[in-house]
Amino acid sequence: MKTSPLLLSLSLVALLMTAGCGSNKPSSGEATNANSSPTQQVFTVAIGGEIGDLNPHNYKSSFPALDLVYEPLVRYLQDGSIAPALAKSWKLSEDGKTLTFQLREGVTFHDGTPFDAEAAKWNLQRWVGTKDHDWLPLANKIKSIATPDKYTLTLQLKEPYYGAIQELALVRPVRFLSPKATDATGKYLKPVGTGPWQVQVDNPTQRAVFTPYQNYWGTKPQLNEVVFDVIPDAQTRVAALMSGQATLIGGDSIGGIPLESVTTLKNDPKVQLLTAPGSTTYFIQTNYDRPPLGDVRVRQAFSYAINREAIASKVFSNLATPAKGIFAPKIPYVNYSNPQLYAYNPEQAKTLLAEAGWKSGKNGILEKNGKPLQLTLIVDGDSSPQAKSMGEVIQAQLREIGVAVDVRLVDSGAWNDALMKKQFDLAINLTWGSPYDPHLSLKQMFHSSSKYAEHGGVYGHPTLDKSIDKVLATKDEKERQNLYVEIQKFMDENVAAIPIVYSNRVYAVSNKVTGFKLAGTEYELDLQEVTKKSQ
């Protein structure tokens, strides 16, 4: 007798829910009951990847899990504005080099240690000026850190840098750990933050359990417990939600929902489906060191050949928007008021390839100097449930203009390795979204001084480098807006990247839940006002 896939999925969910809750000691003196009573409000997040050790100063842990435990000085809101968090106010000096924060008083870490300027300074010193964090521009731009009084923190910058505030809103590595949560050498021991949730159980590969921090300074959670259960398979996560084993699935940082499941979830009366415009952009990254792709006419042709509307419809079930440029419309300073420069036009694509010297060859594939126009597209199969389908549609669209594309579906490790070694022609990539965009994605993906400049995907044009440097340093808001317009125009005309779609944020939550809302960024999880019916 064959086993139903749904029954198999539910069996796996049940196994995951009861296995390996770990024996880690709580981070505070309070105990927790992993088998909570039916009257308790337990909110279970089915997460696709590992939870990690919850060290806020490395890159091995789940973003939303870290966000529950640790807080930033300032926080990103849905509209792209910056709001107070552990800092109640801040001021930038006229020369743009001194950033002064007034910290919130009465805040404590989960172990009772006060959060003050000295604790903040200690945390900053764990990542400022260190090799592990030199990808973050602010880590290299802070000259000194001062604590004039108990609740005043001053950052002296080496040069003006408008991205400082945005980067202080990130989930990692800029959030705050209790100084008592390390050993005498500064080695991380346990997850102790100031956030609304404290860690009771942390089994990095299977489960984490969080309970409300009773002395939290802000809005206190209504739920009794939040559980993160690791369920790698996307369809199994869907089954877990539909069976009631999970309360929440979805979101890029938790684990994407297969789009073929969206209609099912939307029609399920036990489920609430939430969607909103996202801030990340899927784009085709090109290896400019490979001869066909160094020719701007070839890149322009490829951009004309991409039918973005078809990808948004067929691959994303209209839960994505055809991209006009590299950054999503909700990103600050983005302005795409003009018609799309590379609207779908396969005939124009063929004309450009002909101008570049490519002629008809065998089996409809273009040739030049006896060599066929044959390329490899690498796709990170771990990045989203849509990755494979997107690669196949792009393959078919480029085939229509005479380009043979071999799609290689690989895991994240192999994908990164291929980029590092430039062993690819084309790759499906995505921008980092809020609060990284536009400044961080520009600096790291398109500036020749980036630590990723050895990758084939870094455009590295002197004109673009100069504009990026200026936009990051200017103190004039009008000049910054104008510079971003120039940057977007230059990138479009020179096809520094081939944007595909802006993906939506998609979550599915149990209908027993009220008060759930999307956090300011894809990397965070806001559960403070959430309640859940027990039955």
Distance between the termini: 34 Å
CATH class of the largest domain: Alpha Beta
Overall CATH architecture of the largest domain: Roll
For the biggest sheet, the summary is: 6 strands, mixed
Q: Tell me the CATH superfamily of the largest domain.
A: Dipeptide-binding Protein, Domain 3
What is the CATH topology descriptor of the largest domain?
Dipeptide-binding Protein, domain 3
Number of domains: 3
Task: Outline the structure in words.
The chain has 535 residues and is an alpha+beta fold. It has 16 helices and 23 strands. The strands form 7 sheets. Strands 14-20-13-19-17-18 form a 6-stranded mixed β-sheet. A 4-stranded mixed β-sheet has the order 1-10-9-8. This is Nickel ABC transporter, nickel/metallophore periplasmic binding protein. Residues 1-19 form the signal peptide. InterPro entries: CntA-like, Peptide/Ni-bd, SBP_5, SBP_5_dom. One of its GO terms (molecular function) is peptide transmembrane transporter activity.
